[in-house]
Amino acid sequence: MANATQSVVSPRPKRGSPLKSLIVASLAVGMIASGGGAATAQPTTSPTPSTSTPAPAPEPAAPGSSTSTTTPPSASSSTTQATAPSSSELERSAAPSEAPSPSAQAESSTPTTTPPESAPSTTSAAPAAGKKIPYTGKPTENPNETLVPGKMRSDREELPEGWTKEQADKAEMKEARLQKEARTGLQARVAPGCQLYWPSEFEVCGAIRDKYNSLGAQFSFLLLPTTPELINPDGFGRRSHFQNGPIYWSAATGAHPVVNVFHQKWGEKGWEGGFLGYPKTDEVVLNGGRLQDFTGATIYWSPLTGAHPVGGAIRDKWAQTGWEGGTLGYPTTDENVLPGGQGRMNGFQRGVIYWSPNTGAWVVQGRILDIWAEAGYETSIYGYPTGDQTAGSLPGSAKQAFQNKYTISDYGLKKFADDPQGNGEYVYANGLKEKEYTDSVADNGILWTNVIYPGDLPAADPSLPDRTDHPMDWKYNIAASVQSVIGNAAVDCRANRYFRATGQKDNTPPGYNYDDRNKPANYSFHSRTTGHQLGTSYILQMRCTWTRDVSPQVRERGETGFELRYKIYDFNQQP
Q1: Which pLDDT belongs to residue 365?
Q2: Closest CA to 219 of 15, 452, 22
């Protein structure tokens, strides 16, 4: 494989430079024209992705490499952002396709089109008082075929930042040779439909040139060309590299830029030779993110989740949920091969989609996902999901069918607090002899709490023992309607305490862990939690589980419980 010409990787122009000003003006026009929603827009409007990505939805251990489950549907139109090509990408070319003959181009399906009319060339007048004119981006008027000190275009016109006088002079002399060959009819060395963009010496040809010009050429986010047109390893596709990324072309997909996080993720998956294939669109602006469609899957990006491909049956199922604006949000993982090599999964902001050839693709989310995850996902006794979540047998409950005749049912984690939305918290005033709350919310069960022996305040009641750990007793009864579902099945309940501000488990000594097993459904679960800090908000959460046979074909794994949000104040400082 022949080595391709190496690119000149140049930084973006500094603020205030002529090229930068023209780029900003071009982008402003592009942004006004693009509008909102799923419209195309200049890539430089896309924010730089955050390096801080939230933890993805739970996924099984040891996922494999990414592949597509089935052929995905096509996506809509697009636009782009920015990166420089790596040397490894340049070196994988079959060969540079610099200036092939027209007949050779036809045989190899090189993307050629009729070039547009050339822009007016630059003036050759010397600048006043030795000052250079701003960079114009126009073809050179009367270019010099040989180096003439003090008479080159670079002596009278500013260069874009990162480009040297040596490079500019070399490009000008090449312009002169090409113009001479065109005038004398020596077309054999000149590729049809090609164009030079001074101060770069590299021609941009055919459909790639048309795409480049449509984006704004050297005044676009791509800036100037850094390589000749290169033949891809498959021997059919072509690409040209620019300062901020390449444009790829194939006969089936056309020419599209792939830059920035999309370029990086595509490279991770093997470029056009991987399962993603060639790009089918430019980048497309979404609500809160972007996408780029490829022949094998689509890469989605948002600043919170990063760039991840979604394809095949998983992509089809995601579409049914409303894409990134639906119940799942943006993808948080690539498509992962699961243990055993058969199944696939993608994690999303609010759930997962699992697929296997025997079960299809299904969404798992919420507390049913928590239960399934604790058991071991598809490697557990439940296996893969065989349907979506549906309404359960009681109001507000949900269930989902899995392999191995199991159904996971969620009868609700009942929230007790001092407002109907469950966003507040109980407030206990330390310094009183006792403070008791009893609450029942729409047949969610009964919770009783009691703050006892509250204190380290002598004025409270000297007859009571001093308690500096601010204990709280609690007792919970499962709702009668859920008890009727459980029947004679044994119930296991576990409780933990968390800091409300962070969601982290409270392991402050002595810590708190409650575990009570094999109890009847009507049992009064109770305990004392100690070690509270005055003024700190807590969450006390208990989860109760059971297993029962609904029929010879269905075994239910059910769960219910409660969540109490509370705070204990000093009696003299209570709100």
Answers
A1: 97
A2: 22
